[in-house]
Amino acid sequence: MSDYSLTENNYKATLVLNIDRKVVDEKMGKVLKELSNQIVVPGFRKGKVPAQIVKSRIGIETVVEECVEEIVPSLLEEAIDNEKLEVASKPRLDKVENHKGDVVKATVTFDLFPYIQTGDLNSIELEIESPIVSDDEIQHEMRHFLKVDAELEDAPDDKIIDESDVATVDLIILNPTDEESEPLLERKDMIIDIDDNKDYEQIAIALKGHKLNDEVTGELSLGSVKANFKAEIKKVRTLKLPELNDDWVKANSEYETADAYVESVRLKLQDNKYNQALSSLTAALFDHYKDELVNGVHATMVMDMASTEYSRLTEKLKASNLTLDKYLKILNMSYTELEDSITNSAFETLAMSVMLRSVARTLNIDPSEEEIESFIFDSDKQNFDNNFENFKNYFFEKEEEKKKFELAANLWKDWKKILKSKSSSKKENEKYFYFMI
User: Fold this and answer.
1) Which residues of 260-287 are buried (b: 16+ CB within 10 A; e: fewer)?
2) Tag placement on the chain: N or C end, fewer CB within 10 Å?
3) Tens-digit pLDDT profile for residues 157-184
4) Domain 3-111 class in CATH
5) What 8-state DSSP symbol labels residue 247?
6) Are 153 and 164 in contact (CB under 8 A)?
7) Mean pLDDT, range 301-306, rounded to an integer
8) Which residues are registered as beta bridge partners of 238?
9) pLDDT of residue 246
10) Which residues, at least 6 apart from 103, have a Cβ–Cβ distance to it below 8 Å?
């Protein structure tokens, strides 16, 4: 490993790598060959320009810098691992010093993740749902599984709809900007499971207490916009669930007994609750420390991450044969607004990382980079990929429907802002998008 010196000041690191000249000389042949393919010299074919001519044309200092740029990454990685540095921005090769002697000096600078003063964590009061799973929750989840073999029986005409029923309705969602115009959505014979319909939960709740042939009206939340709906009940059927016994469990799961199956459901629900509690805790801490995080996250860190996010977006657009201009037009967004949106998202992601690292340090926990990145970046990337596909499928298959197009574009823009807030309202707003596709 090459010798180096490290200085840190206000979470900015300067690393001077002392590279053995022999290493540079060994790399020079390859670099000169690559450069000979890039320059045009009369009398020589590309790639056949002699090394001495390449040096004279380009300059030995440039050639050495090219060599150093190829050598630095591996040396930098070793130094970062050796010093256990938490790098927060893309390292920059600021200077190459090619003086006489056996060493070429390369100066690299980068940001380090800052830490905030968390204070006494026990003094922060948070309200988080208990991760204890109730018997009612287990029964509700079991109903969902038993529905695999459930039978539907026509209910009596005077049957009052409850959680055990499935209703068939004619649904109309009115345009919130003009209820006299063409409906935003109109579906015939739409089936709604009253007990298990996350995507149409507001409608399912409104149907409870009604019966066959009733016309039910209510209000839907589409992002930040409210829209009225009408649902005429055309049919009511009641779910008849099979008995939960060992035979059913063996036929429909990997378990041998009903007790083992129920316990697996309990553990699954408990795991979900722990994850929800963790998300609530993270969001609450983020809000608690927001002022410290605003001051702690450096601008260069934010710009580096924003650049990465912008590149990811342009790659997605290119893969989908979409232009940036068309994308912005659909979002009803200017390029400046897009830049602001990406920058804000980058700040929030970095601030979340800083907060997690700071709290972990206070609690004497040493999470790995993989654990931190998995907690923050993987979920964000999955959300980005899934939502981009929804966006593309809806807008580019139905672009001619201008009224829906304009309304949905504005809602999508608002939905994205809510998604970035990392608040509990995120799930509520995801429901809207299912309607639109």
Assistant:
1) ebbeebbeebeeebeeeeebbebbebbe
2) N
3) 999 999 889 999 999 888 766 767 788 7
4) alpha beta
5) H
6) no
7) 84
8) 153, 165
9) 94
10) 18, 19, 20, 21
* C-beta of residue 272 within 8 angstroms of C-beta of residue 279: no
pLDDT bin (cut points 50, 70, 90) of residue 16 is: very high
Q: For 151-240, CATH number?
A: 3.10.50.30
What are 91-96's contacts with CB under 8 Å, separation 24+? 91/15, 93/68, 93/69, 96/61, 96/64, 96/65, 96/68
Enumerate the β-bridge partners of residue 7. 14
User: At residue 350, what is the residue type?
Assistant: L
Helical spans, DSSP H, in 101-172: 135-146
CA torsion, ordered 172, 176, 181, 186, to nearest 10 deg: -20
Residues 6+ apart with CB under 8 A from 431: 198, 199, 201
Positions of CATH 3.30.70.1050 in the chain = 3-111
Whether pLDDT at 22 is above 70? yes
> How would you class 251 by CB atoms within 10 Å of its CB: exposed for 0-12, middle for 13-18, buried for 19 or more?
exposed
The stretch 250-258 carries a mean pLDDT of 91
List pLDDT tens digits, range 36-54: 776 777 777 776 777 777 7
CA pair distance 178, 229, nearest whole angstrom: 13
Does residue 315 surpass a pLDDT of 80? yes
State the Cα–Cα distance between residues 363 and 185, nearest whole angstrom.
51
SS (HEC) of 55-85 = HHHHCHHHHHHHHHHHHHHHHHHHHHHHHCC
Query: 369 falls in which pLDDT band (50, 70, 90)?
Result: low
Looking at every residue in the chain, the average pLDDT score rounds to 77
Rounded to whole angstroms, the Cα distance separating 31 from 164 reads 73
